[in-house]
Amino acid sequence: MPMKEINDDSAQRCQQAFIRLLADTPLASVRMAEVATAAGVSRPTLYRHFHSKEQLFRAAVDSMFEQFYDQAEPYLTQYEDSLALALNFLASSVAFQHRPLIETLLRHGDDQLFVSQMRKYFARMLGTLIRHQPERRFRQIDLDLITAMLAGACFYALREWVANGMQQTPHEMARVLAHVFNGQLLALV
Question: 53-188: what fold?
Answer without folding.
Answer: Tetracycline Repressor; domain 2 (1.10.357)
